Amino acid sequence: MTDGPAPVLAAELIRWSWVGDHLDDIRGYLFQHVELTGLALLFGIVLAFPLALAAVRWPRLYGPILAFTGVLFTIPSLALFILLIPFTGLSIRTALIGLTIYTLLILVRNMVEGLRGVDRDVREAAQAMGFSATRQLFQVELPLALPVIMAGVRIATVTTIGLVTITALIGWGGLGRLFIDGFTLDFTTPIVVGIVLSAALAFAADLLLVAVQRQLTPWARSRRS
Amino acid sequence: MITFESVTKRFADGTTAVDNVDLEVPEGDLTVLVGPSGCGKTTTLRMVNRMIEATSGRIVVDGRDVAQVDPPELRRRIGYVIQQTGLFPHRTIGENIATVPQLVGWDRRRTRDRVGELLELVGMPAEVRDRYPHQLSGGQRQRVGVARALAVDPPIMLMDEPFGAVDPIVRSRLQDEFLRLQQEVRKTIVFVTHDIDEAIKMGDRIAIFRQGGHLEQYAPPDELLAEPASDFVADFLGAERGLKRLALIPVSAVKAESGPVVTPDDPGQRAVAAAEAYGSDWVVVVDADRRLLGWVHAGEAAERGRVGDAEVRPFQLQVLAADSLRAALNAMVQSRTGVAVRVSDGDRYEGIVTMELLSKEIS
Amino acid sequence: MDVVGDVLRWLTDPLHWSGPGGIPARTLQHVWYSLVATGIAAAIALPIGIAIGHTGRGALLAVNLTNLGRAIPTLGIIILVFQLAGFGFIPVLVSLVALAIPPIVTNSYIGVRSVDRDVREAAEGMGMRGRQVLWQVELPVAMPLIMAGIRTSAVQVVATATLAAFVGLGGLGRYLIDGLSQRDLPQVVGGAILVALLSLITELLLGRVQALVVSRGLAERGADAAVRAKVEKAA
């Protein structure tokens, strides 16, 4: 660790030649990043759904669920990952489980709020028209809850993309590895590349999700303008 | 006194919200601005305390052009009550009411006393002063809103649909209480509503606006109802203008007829004679002290021999001298006799009000 | 594999409770960094968020600032700043403060903005000047959300300060970073537990402060706001 007087404030932030030489590494990191994010989101959604449904169906569960997720959310991410280590070692499982937990926290809350936010009048009308509970859920409540749920998915995605970089400290990291590389090589280029790429990835993912949301909620489109 | 001189308001997008309005609100009067949505009544109201600035024209309040006065200073002397009350949720009721006194620098003791006075004035229990707005019902919040506006005893009040956010029963009660209050304090009030019935009930004068901000007519309610200035006004007043007028005239304004009257001890023949003379098939029955007992069929009385032996049917409704002719009409249609009977406070018979009397009064 | 036992032993080892590398010293350091960083961030962010909320100008920035903040990798910023400015408290502080600003700006903005239009209208209509409306009405009513923003930010700072140990900062993060590089499981897990506890205490403490500072008339609003602030639904 360098421990001396401050070096010149960046003669060059990016040495493009280095970027050119390490395109393969960068690509590899990017793939790992997308892989970790995608998997974490997938598991998160799959697990959050039944939890959210349970919380809506049995409102008394919601309080404890909220409290529990609230507590987990407060814990710094690095600490959370580390607390998993005794159970899952330094494997990719640790990273994945930790990331999934975070997506879960965000998604459960948003799903519940979204479902609860569906107009009571609409729900009553649906019931009165003879929808079965399951039909009603999938054809009426979920579509209407979609905006709020999608907002949660967006937040979860961007947050996860950020959290993946933290996993660099426990051996994974995706683009976060570039930060470690930059640090060990005492070199700003990888760091800048890492920051730019993960931010870009986050924006791209967000825009993609906005587009998906627009597609899934055509009735909201006219209001938006 | 409030005077509007050729006041116009045009918004940036070109719409004319208020079009050349000339209006004078006499001191101590309650003037109602009424009209359909988009007629500019609220805009007009809000130009008085400069929440909206007039595009042209002058508004003079108590001799001073409002444009010449610093707006916050102006507003501290004008009471402002709005539909959603706008009570500060983070302050207690007492603190809410004390807002303007604090702004103008009253000392604590004076403020505290005034808050107590005002709570009593608007009919709220004293303990309410330490509660928070979210703990009160809609009607209670409205009262607090009025109390807050009256805090420094401003000579002028602006009220924008103040009773609109509560249910009809509560609204009616609030209106009555406010009218009673106004009797006491006699403020100069500009009151906005979209409800013509509320306007007629509350207003000393009514200003009817049309879409586009045109003032169609400005007159006391009975004049308005008797002589609408245009088709728009007539339409706005509603198809039952006649009934509305009746609501404004007290029973005491018409001379009640004495009508056919008998006592229970009178012979049935007396009843027949009285009924014949009057032109009905029934007679009114009173006791020795002239207290109303009801009515009987003259024929039945004759059959039974004595009036009291026939079935004395009660009048479902009676009217007092102070009730409106509309109440009399209501009583009329609910009685087989087809007339309304007028009594005193102690149930003493005072006479009969007939359909003819009503028609004569409003035609 | 007696991990629990090892960790407990590490946590209760008196050696770890004394000296500059001990738990109390590091906790104090951590608290100090977090306090300073949150304080400075609040001093910068509160006026900005409140001004934007009060005047309505710059709303786009305020609303999106938190999203922007979320997209930028914390660890990257810390390491970059370190590379550019070297080791030292100030550079780390700068990163901590920068990352702590967004939630406060966004929440203060939303808080002031969400003050009921009628309440504002009534305040102006009664003759309050702009500044009086702000201080006597808007800020108190916005307080639940403002406090929620500060809470979120503080907890975030505690987490970021933990990461900053990677570039040499002291505090409880040291146990995590050192433990990782030394492959010392009890140290790393013990440190993680300590950090988690500190975060929770911070959250709870500020929750109490919030309860004290927020008017009782806003009681239900406050609880709601904290939940909402945690997972800002609006985008």
What is the strand and helix layout of this fold?
The complex is a heterotrimer of chains A (225), B (363) and C (235).
Chain A: H1 16-21, H2 23-57, H3 59-74, H4 77-88, H5 92-116, H6 120-129, H7 133-166, H8 176-185, H9 188-216, H10 221-224
Chain B: E1 2-10, E2 16-25, E3 30-34, H1 41-48, E4 56-61, E5 64-65, H2 71-76, E6 78-82, H3 93-97, H4 99-104, H5 108-121, H6 138-149, E7 156-160, H7 168-185, E8 188-193, H8 196-202, E9 205-210, E10 214-219, H9 221-226, H10 231-237, H11 241-248, E11 261-262, H12 268-278, E12 282-286, E13 292-297, H13 298-304, E14 318-319, H14 325-333, E15 340-343, E16 349-353, H15 355-362
Parallel strand pairs in B: 3-8, 3-9, 6-7, 7-8, 11-12, 14-15
Antiparallel strand pairs in B: 1-2, 1-4, 4-5, 9-10, 12-13, 15-16
Helix pairs in contact in B: 5-6, 11-14, 12-13
Chain C: H1 3-12, H2 23-55, H3 59-71, H4 74-85, H5 89-113, H6 117-125, H7 130-164, H8 173-181, H9 185-213, H10 219-230
Structural notes for this entry:
The complex is a heterotrimer of chains A (225), B (363) and C (235). Chain A has helices at 16-21, 23-57, 59-74, 77-88, 92-116, 120-129, 133-166, 176-185, 188-216, 221-224. By secondary structure, chain A is mainly alpha-helical. Chain A has a single domain, classed as MetI-like fold, CATH 1.10.3720. Chain A is elongated. Chain B is of the alpha/beta class and 363 residues long. Chain B folds into 2 domains: 2-247, P-loop containing nucleotide triphosphate hydrolases (Rossmann fold); 252-362, Roll (CBS-domain), CATH 3.10.580. Chain B has helices at 41-48, 71-76, 93-97, 99-104, 108-121, 138-149, 168-185, 196-202, 221-226, 231-237, 241-248, 268-278, 298-304, 325-333, 355-362, and strands at residues 2-10, 16-25, 30-34, 56-61, 64-65, 78-82, 156-160, 188-193, 205-210, 214-219, 261-262, 282-286, 292-297, 318-319, 340-343, 349-353. A 6-stranded mixed beta sheet of chain B has the order 6-7-8-3-9-10, with helices on both faces. A 4-stranded antiparallel beta sheet of chain B has the order 2-1-4-5, with helices on one face. In chain B, strands 11-12-13 form a 3-stranded mixed beta sheet. The longest helix of chain B is centred in the middle third of the chain and has 18 residues, at 168-185. The model of chain B has no long low-confidence stretch (mean pLDDT 91). Chain C is elongated. Mean pLDDT of chain C is 86; it is low at 221-235. Chain C has one domain (3-230): MetI-like fold. Classes of the chains: A mainly alpha (225), B alpha/beta (363), C mainly alpha (235). Chains in contact: A-C, B-C. Chain B binds chain C through residues 49, 51, 71-78, 80, 82-92, 99-100, 103, 132-134, 148, 158, and chain C through 116, 118-129, 132, 137, 140-141, 143, 214-221.
